[in-house]
User: Fold these one by one.
Assistant:
Number 1:
Amino acid sequence: MSLIVGRISREDMEDFQYTLEMALKSTEFWKKKFFELDSENLKPEDMVSLTEKVKITPHDLYEIDEVWPNYIKKAEVFHTVMRTSGTTGRPKRIPYTRDDRFRTARQVEPWVRKYMDNGDKIASFFPPLPSSSGMFAFGAFEALNAKSAYYQIPIQYLLDKEMLLKELQDIKPTALFCLTATAYNLGLILPESIKKDIQTIVVGGETLTPELARATLELFENAVIIDNFGSTEDAITGYRVITKKKTTEFHFEESVVILKDNGDGYDEYKRIYITKVMRNGELTGLPLFNYDIGDLARVVDGEVRNIIRVKDVISLAGAKLHIDQVMEIVFNHPDLLDFVIIYHPLSPRNPKPKATIRVAYSGKKPAGIEDEVRELIYEANNPVRYEVEESKQAELTIEAVPLEKLREGLPRKLGKTKRIYIVGRDL
């Protein structure tokens, strides 16, 4: 089953055709991909059947002579070059034009106007250039001329509670911009005098499940969450609003998004393909059609429930463990607060892939918690149970530790709160 969402109405056809026309005029990669296709009569819904022939992958983005438009390579329009985090092995460089900035503003405008256009003070933990998240946040709000004040918080303050508290007490923020896990962790350490003033929490970059959202909102009693699905390549592709009472569906304001079966037997998890749509007269730094970003959408009853980032799935022989399944278990449990996963992938030195899930509790250790978590994982993911218990081709260990020891011995990186640590890469 496939779904297509976003800019797919009849009124969107002109912009889609304009975007395609400019890509074919200016970019060698897309000239080759659309060769022999009737591009003049192509519609957004036709992209569903073309995900094998017409697509671009993260590794393709290293070939800048092919994927960058001529007007970017010749510097005929001003552009910023942003840098990705290097998930695919080394950082990619992504051009971002003035028109891209206005497009990002359109992507976020609905929730900015509703929740953050009334004198808000934003404490942003999104890092500035060359990272994209700070560029998108600052640039979009500036382009919208939103009635807000944007305070850039040094991300090293996340490692220094005293400096962090002093900074936030001086600013008196009403909104937080940060990665998903950072928001939850701030809720655990900030005093009520700061948390009670927070009305909006804007998150992204990491998987957010309803369970983690609920746990975060319990810590910030007056807040709503804006959950953004974004990437350096397409900016803020989609968003949803989460309150204590309800969660809206994902809105995809300026992209065509295709969700297709991943072919791995996990029918709820759909592979995401993104097409960037510009408005007539605009020039993007990086044309994208069916961008196979590697992320997955969990679709339940025809609606996107979670978006799982590519780095948040691990393989246990023939099974896959998706991080949102672990989140559901941990953040639904009355005695558990957080977790990390230490993953030993298959290698010549390691004949069996192994995952150690370390769960954190507060106070007295709950009796039998390791066995309980294991059984809940098996209940949610029978292939994992089979590979661990029957075929014996993978290993799964559950450890329960006090919250203060959860990340003991694990590396910390400024601006990011990792949940999956890969032995041989992170450790």
Number 2:
Amino acid sequence: MLVSFKALLSLLFLSSTVSCSLHGLRHGHGGRRQRTCVIPSQYKASNGTADDSPAVAEAFAKCSVNAVIEFSEGVDYNILQPVSAKNLSNVAISVLGNLHLPQNITAVHAQATSLYWFTFAGPSIDFIGTSNITTGWIDSYGQAWWDANPVNGTGTAARPHLLSFNTTNGSLQHYKSRKPIAWNVQLVGSNITVTDAIIDATSTGGFPFNTDGFDVTGTDIEILRSVIYNGDDAIAVQTGSHNVLFRDNTIGYQSHGMSIGSLGQDQTQFANVSNITFDHNTVISAVYGARFKSWIGGQGLAKNITWSNIVVYNVTFPIYVTQTYVNQGSAQTQLQSGGVTGRVNNASVVMEDFTWANFTGTINTFSPGDRSCVTDPCWYNAGLPNLTHTEAIIIECNTDTSCTNFSTENIQLFPQNLAPPSVICLNATAELNPALGFACRNATFVPL
């Protein structure tokens, strides 16, 4: 039986003028927060029609330093215009009420001068939600966007990202996002901790394209105890990221898993990622579990990457590596400049010291993939013409020198049809990968 998002939450969580004062005494990494700005709402009085964005902008202007900015508990707010606050310092953003984006596509497009609907930047920012699952949500009304996706399209045009969170010594606590239009959170900076987040991008109609959970570019970043049900990467660790920990999380629905990349799209840039750990996570009904993706002709180094203690249930590709990735989506989905077609295969993002340890669970044999296919073969089957969907591990190294020191240990993954698990493996040579743990060939998976 599949685990619904609502059932999962029950299991996890049932056990105009801004009023300013000087009694906000919370402390952040930057010291004492001496002022509090409580944002008023016109939502109820206007029967849900008034725009509270001007009051929000006023609060962020008045309480931008050593302050607390509060959305009151249980109160609804219409955020009908993008909010940008890039000069914050030692600020807590207390989201105890519900924030509503425009409920129709036209209204969002009318404000489409901003890539992000919320932009927060500066040192020592703490986004603090609430453990009360009935309030503290950002409602983006993404279902209308997903249903409007054109036939054979990969997402409606001009979709905004939800949140850019750029800080040092900050946190994101109890962040809750319901039906995001597309991308959720871009984390940028250093020493950031995310705890107890909930992202619900489950759809009753069209596919929720590009609903990434967390796109990470930074150092010393932790994402802990969170639930991410979405239609793209639960986490995508991007170039320039080091010392990242993703632990004790539950991801699923149509998720594209715990990903490194994509790296190397811009062939003029040296991609660099190191010391990334995914540990004690559960993956439910996703396309991918542990995933690495880099482009043909890219350059760079990904080093010391570990996925360990991973439980998968009904996952199409539990362990997946490709150094020949191509993003077939629209221009809006491309992370970097660089050609999508006609790329010269003259370089690779080198992979060193990769470990997959203690994987258990089931491979989706009966209904593999998701509902995002717009091509034949489907994008996630491209280059893999002989799939049986019994594959526990797929490793595609671009050359016989681009993958070094790969290690697998205690991989207990079983196809749902009870056939023997298999592997697809290219160019991970025994000489450079003595601890690979199986023979690199296309065959039944037999641990050595």
Number 3:
Amino acid sequence: MARVRMFRWTWICFWAAIAGLCALAPTEGQQQCPPLGEISPCSCTVKKNGLDILCEFTDQQHIIDAMGKLKGKTLTIFYLKLRHNNLRKLTGFIFLGLDIRHLTIHNSSLSVVEEASLSSIGKMLTQLDVSQNNLIQVPSQAIRNLNQLLILNLNHNKVTSLHSKAFQGLDTLEILTLYENKITNIETDAFVGLEKKLKRLNLGGNGLTKIPQKSLAILDMLKKLEMQENRISDIQEGDFEGLKNLDSLGLAHNKLRKVPAKVFSHLTVLNSLELDGNNIDTIDSEAFVGLEENLQYLRLGDNNIHTIPTDALKGLHRLRHLDLRSNNISYIAEDAFAGYGDSITFLNLQKNDIRTLTGVVFENLNSLETLNLQNNKLMHISEDVIEPVLDTLKVIDIVDNPLLCECDLQWYKNWLRNLRDKDDDLMQKKRAVCIMQQEHREYSLQSLPLEKMNCIIKDYGLVNAGRGEICRPIGFLATTGTVLYVTVMLF
């Protein structure tokens, strides 16, 4: 019986060992790179979803030879990256017999893409990047059969015009980016075929002088439109008609001087609007009509705005982020944020010409977390002005102002002391200072010499544990130590 048991145990161990060896052997379909040097000067690494093949700093013939060595093998090339090469022409059927999912031909002097060069990989390819080359037009005939393509990157080429039906056949395309070309003309039917899926379109960094409304109107699934860094000098009502699902619009760094009435009225779900870096000096009181329910991010920095455009903004009751940096604002009216300030969490007013903050200017900013007043002309920031937002503020930047050292600045030290999760390194870099005129020297606001200034030192928020009351002192004179409290009962 003992021998039988021993035999059975030995047999079990034998088959277990065989199973272990099989587990270590390559399974059918598992990806393996070609033998080292076979596709030289290209290199290969195995990734989770297939092979990653890189060919760089070589020429067309070496690339053709390497592709030839890969043909006939059952391989999934998840990434094929041809970068920094001398590859002026993509010849017909160069990828025949290959399964390529992501193809990058970057900075390789590519100027000609033959019609049959990509057709053999049309059923597999999902991303095509031909950025930073010498293409002067969209290679429409070569890409028309890429019917699984999701992303097409034509950035940094020399395309001057988008001709009719330039992208026809790309029914699945979701992202099209043409940044930094030389496009001055977009024909009416240029985007025909992209209506069903296109979500993001980047036309930034070109030479457009107006919104190509008729071309864009069919893209009713578009979520993000980027037209920054063009030469657009005028926008008008109706320019964005048809873009009913647009969430983000970028018009920064153009040549706009005014924002007319109802220009965005068709963009009823718009969440983010970038108008910074223009020369805007006029914003119509009805400029943002239609954006009331959804606009949360508005960038108006680097323009020529002289006052906060309250009449235009007051209907934007969901606005959270308002950027007015680098304008010519010198005065903030007490009702500047009335009607819309309650939802704002971020307010940027840096690099303006603001000289005074008076009255209840921040009273409507009940949710404010970040306030940037850096690099203005402020000499005084009293506690009465800043008090309405002290409880919610997490960041306040008041550096690069000619602040005078005054007793009324001690609120800053208290706010900083009570601030949770503060970035000490950042606070050290952003160290706010004031000037003591009598001594002609600077002091950090965190270490104001209150005794030397004969200030009434305030003891903020002292809690009476026995009665649950907050005792708010009027203060005590630094020279006498006398304390006088006013007690506020909390019910």
Number 4:
Amino acid sequence: MTLLQPGEKRSLSDFISGPRLRVQVTHDLSQADVSVFGLNGDRQLRDDRYFVFYNQLRSPSGEVSLQLDGARATFELDLQALPAGVERLMFVISHDDSPMSRLGQLRLSVQDPQGSERATVLLGGSQFTAERAVMIAELYRHGGGWRLGSVAQGFQGGLDSLLGYFGGQVASEATPASTPAPAGAPPPTTSPAAPSPAASAAQTGQGSSVAEFLRRSAEQDRPGDVFELESSKMLEVKVRGRVWSKLGAMVAYRGQLEFKRSSTLGDLVGGLRSGGGMGALLGAAMRIGSGEMGPLVSIQGQGVCYLADQGKEIAIIRLQGDTLNVNGNDLLAFEDTVTHEITMQRSVAGMVSGGLFSVQVRGHGMVAILSHGKPLTLRVTPNEPVFTDPNATIAWSEHLRPDLRVSQDLRSMLGRGGGETLQMAFQGDGFVVVQPYEESPAMENVPRH
């Protein structure tokens, strides 16, 4: 049995051998509704008969059927029988009143026709806040077959918002449309506006989580988008112009692509411009030389490139006008539409360590970050600052300005103390993400004469 992480996509043939399968959703949120949308290639519901829910338990020819039993919803699927106009099945849960933060646990189980579980997607209430609808997972056509993707994207507006987002008719009561359009009908001249996703960390001031990052990316992740997770440790990048990646991250590619190593001069000037002075400039040069922040590579042309880094886990973040600070060593790739700037931390500890390097990414577009193992997101509040090991710190929210501190404990200097010599101190309102692994301290790699 395979557990899919948020944002991960796998070939359905890895689990199920034929076109028939069962998808079962169990949860503990009272009076919540589970349903499925049959969407076209533009992620639009062109035939309301392929919206299968409590008031419409079957698609026109029974390709999709739903059986409800309390907090368990079971879908019987025959993918081969679906018309060509239905290219994606999106499984969702919604509630009229209660937010998904009250959800204890949700389990989506992909099973063979006999009911043997082959793959799962797990969600919990701690991943959500005020959202009243969540896209759990999806099945979609890809390369002549089908793929399974974990989505975990929430919307505050509930089922009506999702129905409108997918182009369905929002009525006063949820009933099937009386005159449905054929599955292959052309799209309307105007698309309905998408509902606002759950507020970001910058908007709420309450911090965010890695799961929220992945939910935002999964909402827009579709065939044709630039980034897609082939597995939790492999990123597929569809290059149609230019993208940026970490040096040495390319493992394979096809098509006409050109790889150009960017100059580090701009990074050094950026460090100086950020207010670090000459000490920050020297620190930046030392960090680049020691390998903590390798130069970026521009990938240009037309083709597909596969990126990975030392078997680390990959998370896709879709920036929607947001700003995020990422440890330089943990930034894998980003779209050309995303602006970036090298930033430095000013402190005596910064001089000792050669200046702590991070990359601030902002704007609109996809960003891929790295983590050794499953990351942990810690909330930061004005009354509860968070202290982390710099070598285990991956990212932090926009408005946090961490200080790098040196322990004054002589035992720590002699290696006999219980704490770390260098610590990052986060104070304010936001979040910080750490990994269960310490990268090699950058100064260990600096040549000594």
